[in-house]
Amino acid sequence: MELRSKLPWVGTTIFTQMSQLAAEHQAINLSQGFPDFPASPLLLDELNRQVAAGNNQYAPMSGVAILRQQIAALTARCYGRLVDADTEITVTSGATEALFVAIQAVVRPGDEVIVFDPAYDSYQPAVELAGGKTIHIQLAAPEYQIDWQAVHRRVTDQTRLIIVNSPHNPTGMVFSATDWRALADLVQQHGLFCISDEVYEHMVFDGAAQLSAHQQTALLDRTFVVSSFGKTFHVTGWKLGYCIAPANLSLEFRKIHQYVIFSSFTPAQFAIAAVLQQRPQLIAELAGFYQQKRDQFARLLQSSAFKLLPCKGTYFQLADYSAISTLNDVEFCHWLTVEHGVAAIPLSVFSRQEQDSKIIRFCFAKQPATLEQAAERLCRLNP
Fold this sequence. Notes:
globular; pyridoxal phosphate binding; alpha/beta; 2 domains; seven-stranded mixed sheet; four-stranded antiparallel sheet
């Protein structure tokens, strides 16, 4: 019997490839988006305490009650939105699971889903597994702003869902209040569903307001908002996130979630709930923490031949290497890792139509010494 792949164009992700290449060549890994520093000792102590207390069995399918209550409190603090912890919040095994489940909940065969390139690579496979078609709208460097009138023109009778991501991976672009209002108008005018991927929501820099789909009344009854504790608490390996959606959408979301994962890492749910209750300021401090790292990395690369693009949020920095090499970005990242000991991600892998833009992505969620060592190597590259 011949197996016909449902995703014949999908291979091993570039993130896995580059991390493996970095390990093979003992390169500094600024490619895959994970911190190289420990989480808060308070959180780690809480996890140990919860394990010792016996909280190691299946959690409720929607997440432990105390964590959902703390998520509701966090959402109220950050955005002024009151959500029902029982019917509108679902804890998931990472944000990627939440994105997958939300897509399966609303996309039917033949439906069109609008995404903006460069885009996180999990969107399109999930849409295709649901029988949908991904409509890619390319954003342009250096600002990667959305032309909302152009988006209106791309909507058809088959368009069912739009996926947005702010702060944006990989570009570091952040939606303005005008962007959020334009999105709300689009969704309302065309009767679309929306997934708002907000996993970097607490990493907005330079004193800008932390804005969200949660604050748009016109979006609330048609939107899944996806968040990540892994990103927020520097524990990406715990794979813990959550989705907030109105009760009717959450009901459909949970029908699928229960057969994908059923429940997520129980002791971590209790540990994060305890920290949210005891030290809510940890989240408030996150933007300043990562802004310092962004600024340090930029200072260290001032004398390099790289041209840094604007970074208004996330923990990623785009860099133009056109003054250094004529290699395409995939070849350049391979060369940079093997020959110069620094791993990065080529920007073209985030777009449906590969572009030879000579731009790569660095992750600056690293210890100061790691960034210093990486920058020293990068500054040796001459035009």
